[in-house]
User: Fold this.
Amino acid sequence: MNLDDLGKILVTGGTGFLGAALTRRLVQSNCDVVVLDNNSRGSSSRITDIEDSIDFIQGDVTSYEDVKNAMQGIDTIFHLAYINGTENFYNFPELILEVGVKGALVTLDVAMELGLKNYIVTSSSEVYQQPTHFPTNEDERIIIPDIKNPRFSYSGGKIITELLTIHYAAKSNLRTVICRPHNFYGPDMGYGHVIPQFFNRVKELSNNFENKVIDFPIQGSGDETRAFCFVDDAVDGLLLSAKHGVKGEIYHIGTDDEISIKELAILLAKSLGVEINIEQGDLLQGSTDRRRPDITKLSKLGYKPSVSLPEGLSETLEWYINNPIATIRNNEEGKREIIR
Assistant:
């Protein structure tokens, strides 16, 4: 894909899971790339192999000065900086809202001030909470069902980001495009998501895969479904949206290949040589029963995900086997520390 028309590119959150994958693809496409991140959740280790091919700026996306410094000479911004991971929604709602809302305002203000051409921002499938139609298209209503539930700090921040992107910047010359990711996964995605959590659970309960049959507790019945999208396909969707997306429009990025959480757990464990007996549990309040995006809109721009779940899962698990986690940072000594 020729990306010359995007010009010089800034990626906020470029040391995060998706940001690092996007940055690497941009470098492979010979783009001039700047990364802005404070590594509070991301890690520079994700982009060590390309550090000589980018300009890295250690900075905070909520800081006007840091963002303006990073945006000098930029034509296109991919604004990915955010805090995700379900555990973080419940534990750090104030921080999620700070980064989400301030980050959107600051990046939009500076982009308009400096006359950038393109503003590509990632929202989330979380904005739907429990969709009313499946497969779900971009016209589905978005909702916060319980404003007192800290889980919705994440989706609330994303909804505000979408409103700002569409309306706050509407009268400027800035071309804005919103992408709604659906359950991206892949190597080095952190530890606050279902696939690495299941991996760690199987590893622990099987005594490092020595026990070949184990009981495996999960949240909910296991009949809840998701459609998982491998990170390489996710980057394809981002780049197509940036290159061909219409100003002010919203595009789903994901797959329509739906799987139940129970089936996912069984497939994952089998890939590790372990048989599991599912033990049902309670769902966290605000959890979603089903997700399956309609990707027709992005497909019309040429999007065609190509990595199957077994293929992507195999590559992902191989990374986690070869990169065992030592500790999961928690809220120690009164500090706000984010689980990666």
About this structure: The CA atoms of residues 176 and 248 lie 5 Å apart.
